[in-house]
Amino acid sequence: MNELIYFFNYVVVAGSVTGCIYAMGAVGVTLIYSILRFAHFAHADMMTLGTFVVLLLTMLFPHAGDALGLPTAIVMLPIGMVFTSLVAVGIDRAFYQPLRAHKVKPIVMVIASLGVTLMLQGLIRLFAGTGAQSLYVDARKEIFRIDIPGVTRPIILTEPQIILFVVTIVAVVGLHLFLTRARLGKAMRAMSDNPDLARASGINTQLIVTLTWVIAGGLATIAGTLLSLDVAFKPDLSFFLLLPIFAAAIVGGVGHPLGAIAGGFLVGFAETLAVFNWSVLLRPIRDSLPSWIELPNNLAIVGTEYKIVVPFFILVAVLIWRPTGIFKGKVI
Amino acid sequence: MPILEAIDVHGGYGGMNILNGVDMAIEADEVGVIVGPNGAGKSTMLKAVFGLLTITGGEIRLRGEPITNLSPHKLVEMGMGFVPQEKNIFPSLSVEENLEMGAFLKPATASRLKQQIFEFFPPLKEKRRQPAGELSGGQRQMVAMGRALMNEPSVLLLDEPTAGLSPLYMNEIFERVKAIAASGVGVLMVEQNAKQALRIAHRGFVLAAGQNRFTDTGEALLNDPQVARSFLGG
């Protein structure tokens, strides 16, 4: 039983956490692609930026969350989301819109977004330095240990993880309802389907573009903040997020928000399973194994330090064998 | 006063003129049909009316008001509907959602108009929840026309609505076009199936090399031996 709890803590919980983060990032990438038709490489930096704003606010008002019984960073999250959304819209107006007006090729937009990546990274490092910082300022992270009768090992969940699960479910359900029920959400799907006809139907495409950045910026801030709350804020966060979220968006089928969520969990779990130490699960049967098999102490597929290899591998495999992804999306 | 009027329209793409002086006028309950050989500027003229290319000379009027070079968005607000020849539906949206997008500017009237469209095109009602991309060609054309009608346009522009349809569907679409005009909408359409289209046309415009060659009622054009010989294949 202990081994199962170990598996639950290190695969089910850890995989779900990673999956939630990747899913929210990938939804943003996929929405931006379906409306603006380019791969937005600066997306992971929007996550870092949003998190950094939340960190600053938390440092300014470290006890703002005490009255509500929530971490201060969570109370500051909506402000961070609004700020990041505004920055995202501003970046679009300043850099991407002039290029769209010139009807440039998508690759030019991609390179422009790389420029935005470097710019944002520079700015964040200028103010945040290069070290890791906890989002719990003047407070401690709560850790819940759930004891199962008859088992010595408890199930371990942290406060940010529980908040992450709740927020992800709310965000995903909310986004789905918005895209299928709301007038503007349907218009967003219409514009993704056929932008010229959307314009000929009187849909205000400029408004849809703005809305896309607001949603993508908001989700990016949620994902970045909740990840950093669980671990720590690192200015180079985006470096470790960019590849997995693109892999997730492509695996799910670019242009499919639900596919991006599925892709996020797929990549998240693949990563977690690849670094999981399987030797622990085999320990109970160690005595019944034939003597010539010696169980090594670490039996992971790849070492934790090579985790980034997994999304890379998935990405390459998908691009070769199923470039449209699980849900038959567009080919980037 | 004609609901839609074009006077000596010149225009084209990127400095190259395709239209060299086109005149057209239709009343609010009439079907106007543009026919002519390939490359005569038929579709170009329709796009010029809808503000999709730059008009370099002449004037277009809607209810007497000049609308030359206004943006498509503005024209939709003023009550113009446009159904392109290709890519005229939202394939992944359901039939119902396609129609709703047509009423984007008038959400309050959407559900009432949707019922009217379902009565007007009965096949769409049973397929209302299906993605429009899964429908047959004729039904797609109905979705496309229905979407444009959801904005309650006073002028409807149709670019080859029967292209690629079976004769059965073609007649069905022409019947619907006649009914739309009878309800008080000015319809201007480009057609390859010239003979059948002129049969329902109140006004016919035969274009060649970007100019009016013949302009008359549909019936008169059908009976004109000169038109028949050069443009209707004998």
What does this molecule look like?
- The complex is a heterodimer of chains A (332) and B (234).
- By secondary structure, chain A is an all-alpha fold.
- Chain A has helices spanning 2-36, 43-60, 72-101, 106-128, 159-181, 183-193, 195-200, 205-230, 237-252, 257-275, 279-282, 309-321; strands at 143-146, 155-158.
- Chain A has a two-stranded antiparallel sheet with strand order 1-2.
- Chain A is globular, with a radius of gyration of 21 Å.
- In chain B, the strands form two sheets. A six-stranded mixed beta sheet of chain B has the order 6-7-8-3-9-10, with helices on both faces. In chain B, strands 2-1-4-5 form a four-stranded antiparallel beta sheet, covered by helices on one side.
- In chain B, helix 3 runs parallel beside helix 6 (137-149).
- Chain B contains ten helices and ten strands.
- Chain B has 234 residues and is α/β, with parallel strands linked by helices.
- Classes of the chains: A mainly alpha (332), B alpha/beta (234).
- Chains A and B meet through helix 6 and helix 7 of A and helix 2 and helix 3 of B.
Task: Give a summary of the structure in a few sentences.
The complex is a heterodimer of chains A (about 325) and B (about 230). Chain A has about 325 residues and is mainly α. Chain A is built from twelve helices and two strands.
